[in-house]
Structures are given as C-alpha cells and as structure tokens.
Amino acid sequence: MSSPNRVAAAALATAAAGLLVGGIALAIFWAPEDADQGFSQKIFYIHVPVALTAYAFFGFGAWKALRLLSTRDSRYDLESYTAVHMGVIFGLLTLVTGSIWAKTSWGQWWSWGERQLVLFLVVFLFYSAYFMLRYSTDPGPRRERNSAVFALFGVALIPVSFLAVRIAGTILHPTVFTHDDGVAMPWEMFLAFCICLGGVLALAATFYRVELAGKRIDASLKELREQLA
Amino acid sequence: MSAYATDVATLARKDVLLELRSRDTLPAMLLFVVSALVVFHFALPADASDRAEIGLFWIALVFTALLGLTRAFAAEREQGLLDGLVLAPVDRSAIWAAKAISVVVFLALAEAVALPAYALFFQPVGWELVAAVVLADVGIASIGALLAAMAAASRSRELLLPLLFLPLAIPAVIGGVGASVAENPASFLGFLALYDAVFAILAWASFEYVVTE
Amino acid sequence: MTSAEKYVLAAYLVFLAAVLAYLVIIALKVGRLEQELADLARLARERRGG
Fold this sequence. Notes:
The complex is a heterotrimer.
Chain A: H1 3-30, H2 44-71, H3 75-106, H4 115-135, H5 141-171, H6 187-228
Helix pairs in contact in A: 1-6, 2-3, 2-5, 2-6, 3-4, 3-5, 3-6, 4-5
Chain B: H1 3-22, H2 25-43, H3 50-70, H4 74-78, H5 81-87, H6 92-121, H7 127-152, H8 157-181, H9 185-211
Chain C: H1 3-49
C-alpha cells in the first residue's frame, strides 16, 4: 500500500473508533430520553446506522457490479463481492438488533407489522442467495458476470419490496408497529445519531478495506502457488 | 415485422413446439399444481378462512412455476444448444424474450387447469384473481428465464434456482394475494404491473451478460 | 438495572460481539496467509537455489 493510502487507512480507522465511542457515549449519557418509548429507544442509535450501512454496502456492491459489466475489469468482481459480503454481515446485525428492539418495545422478538424490518428480511434473503450463487458456480468470468447481474437485481428489489411491504400493510398485516422517530427529533438526538452513523460507516469502510485486501492477497497467493507448484 | 421480433417469435415457437411434442414439463406442472392444491386442503384446519385458501393458491403457483423453470433451459443444455444459440446472429436478449414468452405459455396452460381446480376444491374464482395471475405470470417468467440461465452455469442448478428465485417472487405474491383479497384490487394490480416492468426491463438488458462465455 | 436498560445493553453488546468476532476471523486469516506465504517463499527458494 502506498504511503498516502496507508495514512488514509489509519485516519479512517481512527475516525471510526473516535466517532463510534463518542457517538455511543453521547447517545447513552447525553441525548434526551424519548418521551414515548423511554430508555429502550436508545437502541435506535446503533440499529439504524447499521441498517443504513447495510443498504449502503448493497448499493456500493451494485455500483461495482455495474462497473464490472461495463468495463469487464475483473478487479471489480472482488470489490462487488466484498461489498455484498459486508452488507450481509451488517444485515444480520440489523435483524438481530431490530429484533431486540422489537422485544423491548412490544414484547415479541419478531413482528410482521414492523415494515422496515420485514423489508430488510426480504433484501437480506436475496443477498444471502448471492452467496449460494457464488459458491455453486466455478470461478471465472461466468461467475463474475452472474454475480454482478444478481447484485443489480438486488438494488431493484429494494424499492419494489418497499412498495410491496407498504401496500401489504393495508390489507395483509394490519397491525403496524412503527418506531416513531425522525420527524420531530430534538437536535441533541439528531447530532448523536449522526455521529454514531459516521462512526459505523467509518468502521464499515475500514472492515471493507481489510476484507478486500484479504481476498486479494488470497487470490494472488493462489496464483503464485499455481506458478510455483 | 422487424428481425428482432421475428427471432423472438421463432425461438418461442421452437420452445413451445418442443415441449408439446416431448410432453416433458407440462404434464408434470399440471399434475403438480393439482396435487399441491389437494395437499393444501389437508394442510388447512377446518375453520380456515377464505383468505388463507387464496394464499395457498399463490404458493402453489410459485412452486409450479419453479418446477417449470427448472426445465427452462434443460433442453438446450442437454444438447449443447445454448452455445449454438449464443453464437447465432441473434440478439442475445431475444433468447431471453423467447424463453420468457414460452414460460408464460406454459404457466397459462397450467393455470387453465389450476384455476378451475381451485374453484372446484375451494371457492369461486373472481376476475381479480385471473388478472393478478396474468400479471404475475409475466413477472415470474421474466425473472425466471434470466435466473434459469444463471443457474444453468452452476453445479447445482436445481438447488440454486429456487434460492435465487424465491426472494424475487415475494413482491409478486404480495401483489397477487393482495389483488385477490382487497376491496380495491387496482392498487395491487398496478403494483404487479410495475413489478413486471422493472424486472422485465432489467432482465432483458442483463441477459446477454449471463449467457456470454 | 431496568428491563429496558438490559435490552439496550444487549443490543450494543451484540454489536461489540460482532466487531470482535470479525477481528478474530481476520486474525486467523492473516495467520493462514502468513503460513501460505512462508510456504511459497520456501518453494521459490528451492526452485532458485535448488
């Protein structure tokens, strides 16, 4: 890694640590308690940033997939794959933290009425299938292109599912639970949220770089072994 | 008629005729959908609502479609024809369009049996259900034709296709069931049309990347 | 500690656990890559010097 890159990587990791620790501290100790939900609302400061990060990864993965298809440059395959991989990990985290939030808010670990979580489940299932696609296809340009196309279908699925879950709510699952945040949030809450969001995104970016480097080194070593053995 | 449309028509006709002659997939789909409906009757407790029965119809439809789709590129694979088709001076997306059309035809034939069977076993079938089925068929066929080609490149295509397909089928099920039970089916039917448009365009545009070597 | 506080703590702990688990996985991976690199270096030396 070149020098400026190394500095950037270190800065990113440091920022992640600082923003995350600072943000969570602010969220727990400084931000006001929500009038309706009480202390349990504080899960929001970790759950929503993780969810947004997962979506960001899926979008980023789709963007890299598009680059792969238009330039046919293989390096985008690893980048797209890593992004989806991280997206699924953060996705799992979203579902778990969301489930904990549901349990403390309305007493059940899962609720089909919680639209955001249901939407997320559908998207999560889709991108989990991405791994099945990769594992059962032999490495090569075919796998790269199939993965890329599938990643693109994923981002199309997100808005379509959002709509679907919304209209389903009117007929199929009438009890709609929502966590009523976002609209009239006191500025302290918003600030704490933004810092937490920045922290999680920075952490995610750091993990992404590490994971990508690991995958790249793996691939290079495999190639080297083939040459030497 | 433009060359593209002729290509699509020719390929689609080939698929349908091939199936009608070999009678491979279609009888299986017909039998499957009727068997599934019978199983569903036994699966439902005695006081199950009408709405639950509608839901089960849609499940039967999705899985019957999967059954048909698994065979979608089977003929080509078995005779190494897919490579030949790809080499032919035919726009690759025409291959997709033809395959999607033939899947719609097979689904329609299966539904021509499934809907009366459902009306017989469970409850009368309204126009909303038929309209929703038609719309859902287009989306399912569009997505399925692309995914079948993707799965064809893998080592475990029969396992892979359902996994890839089911998450994408969820909006179709929501739209279909909603249209069948809601007082205002129009919004659900509109949603199905949107679903069809989005994924058909995406599948049409990306098919060539999936079949080139 | 109230019940709500417990759940909030649980959620943050899950996040922490995930981060730490990832660290462990990466550490193991680096170890494996290091091993593979050492093997390949030895192979290369044998090829060269014989």
